[in-house]
Design brief:
By secondary structure, the protein is α/β, with parallel strands linked by helices. It has a single domain (3-114, 211-383), classed as Peroxisomal Thiolase, Chain A, domain 1, CATH 3.40.47. It is 35% helix and 17% strand. It contains 14 helices and 11 strands. Strands 3-2-4-7-1-8-11-10-9 form a 9-stranded mixed sheet. Strands 5-6 form a two-stranded antiparallel ribbon. Strand 2, helix 2 and strand 3 form a beta-alpha-beta unit. The longest helix has 16 residues, at 143-158. The radius of gyration is 19 Å and the shape is globular. The relative contact order is 0.19.
Length: 384
């Protein structure tokens, strides 16, 4: 399949990330969208496709506020945090089929000052009959509780340690200290601070958990041919796939419990791109929690099953000296949580060699993962 080869990310834009934006989600979306459109060297009227996130301002809001006269393609993926990466495929297919020429994708949220995670999950997590009838009455109501079960099982099966979880948290913070855009920029995190932070849902402590963020991220996708005439170096979408875990609507019935859709999606995306995990220069891993980095490193093929913790502990995900730098921007744990759209933005910046102090030298291939709901997964392979 070669459809994704015809598309490229040509523009990116982000607002500041904060704990209090002081403006509406629609305003944030417009700000990021205008930045991405300008970065692509286009005008708002050039946009004829829109892919919004499943929670937040709908496409119609941006059509009205941008004054778009003829948007002929819209779509919404319902994979939670795996949606933005999966949306790269949707946009690519629309462009290949002639249904759109310039597609805008965005995530905008007041995730700290507005609706918090406990209200968002009731809108998007599948299997609500299980959630409300079986889990909520027993106090199992938040992603941190659900995903902590996966982490504990992995610890029992493979000996994954507290130190390895902490290594993820501290490494992401070290990367964020090189990124002035990060929410946690200028705020060092030591292992001692990590290990003494308050318990949230054991084994997860406070710094095992991603940030709640106000802000917006947006990208523009066009055909690769059109991208050659635009001002920014095109970032080619070489392969994208999505996958859904077994028992996709219920974690407790899953065997193994830590299996995800990424294990299905990753081989398809790499096969479509014609490369493998060993060819990746920089990885943007959906780090909603520290263990989910370890889990996805294994599921995507960067580390064997059960050895993701050792891979992290050896420093392989660090910008300095690591064989696979992960989340140079600081990720959801330390840059900000925009449902992974900011991971796509960072991948583009890395492949443009515009990462500043956090640039991975000579980066030519980036892999971006998405994680959503109860283990939906997506992976995109991008090249310059």
């Amino acid at each position: 399949m070669s459809s994704c080869w015809t598309a490229a990310v040509t523009g990116v834009g982000q607002t500041e990330f904060s704990s209090g934006s002081g403006r509406s989600q629609s305003r944030l979306a417009i700000e990021a969208a205008l930045l991405a459109i300008a970065d692509a060297g286009l005008n708002p009227g050039d946009i004829d496709g829109i892919i919004p996130y499943q929670i937040g301002p709908p496409a119609e809001d941006l059509i009205a506020m941008l004054g778009l006269g003829d948007v002929r393609f819209t779509a919404v993926s319902h994979l939670g945090g795996a949606s933005p990466v999966a949306g790269l495929r949707t946009a690519s297919l629309a462009i290949a089929a002639g249904q759109a020429e310039a597609v805008l994708m965005y995530v905008a949220r007041n995730g700290r000052s507005g609706d918090r995670v406990e209200s968002r999950v009731t809108q998007q997590v599948p299997g609500q009959q299980f959630r409300h009838g079986l889990e909520h009455p027993l106090g199992l109501s938040l992603p941190v509780q659900t995903y902590s079960l996966m982490c504990r099982r992995h610890m029992l099966d493979f000996g994954t340690t507290r130190e390895q979880l902490g290594k993820v948290a501290v490494t992401m913070r070290e990367h964020a200290l090189l990124n002035p855009h990060a929410q946690m920029y200028g705020r060092e995190l030591t292992f001692e601070q990590y290990v003494t932070s308050k318990p949230i849902a054991l084994p997860y402590l406070m710094f095992d958990c991603s940030l709640e963020t106000d802000g917006a991220s947006a990208i523009v996708i066009t055909s690769a041919e059109r991208a050659r005439d635009l001002p920014q170096p095109p970032v080619l979408i070489r392969g994208v796939a999505e996958g859904h875990a077994d028992s996709a609507d219920d974690l407790s019935a899953r065997n193994p419990i830590y299996g995800t859709g990424l294990a299905k999606a990753a081989p398809r995306a790499f096969r479509e791109a014609g490369i493998g995990p060993a060819d990746v220069d920089v990885a943007l891993i959906y780090d909603c929690f520290t263990f989910q980095v370890i889990q996805q490193l294994e599921a995507a093929g960067f580390a064997p099953l059960g050895q993701g913790g050792a891979f992290v502990e050896a420093g392989e995900i660090a910008l300095s000296g690591g064989s696979l730098p992960v989340n140079p921007h600081g990720g959801l744990l330390s840059e900000g949580h925009l449902a992974g759209m900011n991971h796509i933005v960072e991948a583009v910046l890395q492949l443009r060699h515009a990462g500043g102090d956090r640039q991975v030298p000579g980066a030519e291939v980036a892999a971006v993962t998405g994680w959503g709901d109860l283990g939906d997964g997506s992976l995109a392979v991008l090249t310059n």
